[in-house]
Amino acid sequence: MGIADISAVSSLLSRFRKELWMGIFDRFKSNRQMQDKTKDMSDMAERKANDRTGNKYESQVDDAQQKIEGPLGMDRDRPEQP
């Protein structure tokens, strides 16, 4: 097996991994029940972080929550989609 073969296999695995994750995200985005449960868990984590820091870093915690939820299609600044 030469370097070209290893490179081709690596490229193929990378593309497969990306397609797999995109498929998981697409299924997640279409599952309203799972999104609601994830929002509840995210809110709970936000409350705990704010409680432990005495709300000192509230805006940073909120920014982090939005950055995590955004790629999952859970952007709270956008209106709910049916």
TrEMBL record:
Pfam families: MT0933_antitox. InterPro entries: Antitoxin_Rv0909/MT0933 (IPR028037). It comes from the Bacteria. Residues 32-55 have a biased composition (Basic and acidic residues). Residues 32-82 are annotated as: Disordered. This is Kanamycin biosynthetic protein. The lineage of its organism: Bacteria, Bacillati, Actinomycetota, Actinomycetes, Kitasatosporales.
